Amino acid sequence: MIAVQRSLAYPRALAHPPVHRRTGPAGSPPLGRRSARNRARPGGQALIAALLLVTVLGAGALLANGELRARAEAVAHARSLEALAQARSALIGYAISYAERHPGEGYGFLPCPDSGNDGSTPIGACGPRGTAAFGRLPWRTLGLPDLRDGWGECLWYAVAGSAKHNPKPLTLNWDSRGQFEPYAPDGDRLPVAAPDGRALALVFAPGRAVDGQRRPPGRAFGCSGSDSAQADLAQYLDARYPARSSDPIAVTQAALQPGGEDAANDLVVWIGTDDVFDALRQRHDHAAYLDALLTRAAAALAARLDAAGAAWLASQGTLTGSLALGTLPAAEALGIPVAERAPIELWRDQMRFAVCPDGDACITVGRADPPRVERCRAVLLLGGERARTGPDRQLRASDAERADPAQYFEGVNATHLASGVPAFAGAEHFTTADRSRPATGDVIRCLP
Question: Could you give the number of structural domains in the chain?
Answer without folding.
Answer: 2
